[in-house]
Amino acid sequence: MPIKIPDQLPATDVLRQENIFVMSESRASTQGIRPLKVLILNLMPKKIETETQFLRLLSNSPLQVDIELLRIDDRPSKNTPEAHLNAFYRQFDKVSQRNFDGLIITGAPLGLVQFENVAYWDHLQRVMNWAKHHVTSTLYICWAAQAGLKLLYNLPKRTREEKLSGVYQHEIHQPFHPLLRGFDDTFLAPHSRYADFAADYLEQHTDLDLLATSSIAGVYLAATKDKRNVFVTGHPEYDADTLHQEYVRDVAEGLQPPIPLNYYPDDNPEQPPRASWRSHGHLLFANWLNYCVYQQTPYDLEHFSEDKFTKDD
């Protein structure tokens, strides 16, 4: 089944060229199907690129998914045209009275910024608190995972001395957990962050199921027992060249970044990188949609029992 997105969203042409079934709003209006309603809070600077990456992963499912894009505030963007934001993004007040099957909160380049110094921190907390009562399952990506752990478990910000950048080997735990259905025993995934997610620290301070870890990168995948909050500390949505673009940017800014680990052939930035994480990225999102969203959400979003969303608060 297709993903449903606005007719003129730039991602539409890209995904169709990749032979991904995309349904426009106009065509979807003729379908007698109850699609999953998924909201994406896009905190990344290059929003059009990020939209395409997440829509690509959400398309790998037999479920019809209706996507809406959310912006964190109305401040001008340096990397995305205002016309694009006005055309395709909603302000939080426009959706706050509604319920959604799923919410994805993307990463953000804020690894070295304290939470209280993030311009939209109060607003982000408002969105995350709202999700407790209006969203069946929330997926926190990279920096958003650290923000979610702060909100849900009051964990302090933990920052690494050096940025973690590269593609790392992970091993799975609890192999029969629904989020890991179909995963290999080990798999590769990219990371690009300053945050520290040590497995022993999360075990001591949370009740999360730790589902995939790396001896170098720490926890990659974790979830609450009820699967309503899923934390991914890496970037399964990244394109093959995204880490390269970040590396070139950091070099240009004089940051002297380390070469992303296990990314370039022969560790040579002059060689074009190759993606080695696509299959598990697609599988992770398909499992989240199926087992954390579709099989948990009420059929009628407008008339679900409030108890369902407050019993674990």
TrEMBL record:
InterPro entries, per database record: Class_I_gatase-like, HST_MetA, MetA_family
Source organism: Vibrio metschnikovii
GO CC terms in record: cytoplasm
Family: Belongs to the MetA family.
Swiss-Prot/TrEMBL catalytic activity: L-homoserine + succinyl-CoA = O-succinyl-L-homoserine + CoA
Protein name: Homoserine O-succinyltransferase
Assigned EC number: 2.3.1.46
Top class in the EC scheme: transferase
Pathway note: Amino-acid biosynthesis; L-methionine biosynthesis via de novo pathway; O-succinyl-L-homoserine from L-homoserine: step 1/1
Keyword Transferase assigned: yes
Residues under site feature: Important for acyl-CoA specificity: 111
List of catalytic residues: 142 (acyl-thioester intermediate), 235 (proton acceptor), 237
